[in-house]
Amino acid sequence: MGAALFAAALVATNLMGYLGAHLPAWLPSPAHSQAETAGVHDYLSAVTVIGHAAVIEELLMTAAVAILGRDVLPVWAIYTVSVSLRVAAHLYLGFAGIPVAILGITSVHLYRRYGRIVPLMAAHFAFDVGQLFISY
């Protein structure tokens, strides 16, 4: 089950990456990358920042929202809050931050279905590290 969950999350992140790579060409967006925005200039610090981001983003934007809203909020509100937080955190990317909504929807769905957060963190980390090597 963990491998299937990881694979589903990785597919969503790759779709998000494709759209994120092409939207800046189609729509106006900032000229700088995530690495430049985060102020990282070497691989070790970049991987550290990526690991931190994967854990924190999935814990706060997926698990916490789904758990806190489980008994209080309707399902549509759980998705809306989680996706809104995730997109808002990536607005510095301009229009390239919009595909992050795909990851947000997929993450909430997979977490609500399987109740496991570590495969989502691993997929997030794998995607971001892949983007790191593409961008450097």
Please sum up the structure shown.
The protein has 136 residues and is mainly alpha-helical.
Written description of the protein model:
The protein has 136 residues and is an all-alpha fold. It has one domain (2-135). The protein has helices at 2-26, 34-38, 43-69, 75-89, 100-114, 118-135. Helix 3 (43-69) runs antiparallel to helix 4. The longest helix is centred in the middle third of the chain and has 27 residues, at 43-69. It is globular and about 45 Å long. The model has no long low-confidence stretch (mean pLDDT 79).
Structural features:
single chain, 136 residues, mainly alpha
User: Got a strand count?
Assistant: 0
> Biggest β-sheet, characterized?
none
Shape: globular
Q: Topology as H/E string?
A: HHHHHH
| Helix content range | over 70%
Average pLDDT = 79
User: Using only CA atoms, what is the Rg?
Assistant: 15 Å
Q: What is the terminal separation in angstroms?
A: 34 Å
Spans of 5+ residues with little confidence (pLDDT < 50)?
none
How many domains? The number is 1
* Tally of helical runs: 6
Quote the beta fraction.
under 5%
Which structural class do the helices and strands define?
mainly alpha
Task: Please specify the SSE layout and strand pairing.
Elements: H1 2-26, H2 34-38, H3 43-69, H4 75-89, H5 100-114, H6 118-135
Helix pairs in contact: 1-5, 1-6, 3-4, 3-5, 3-6, 4-5
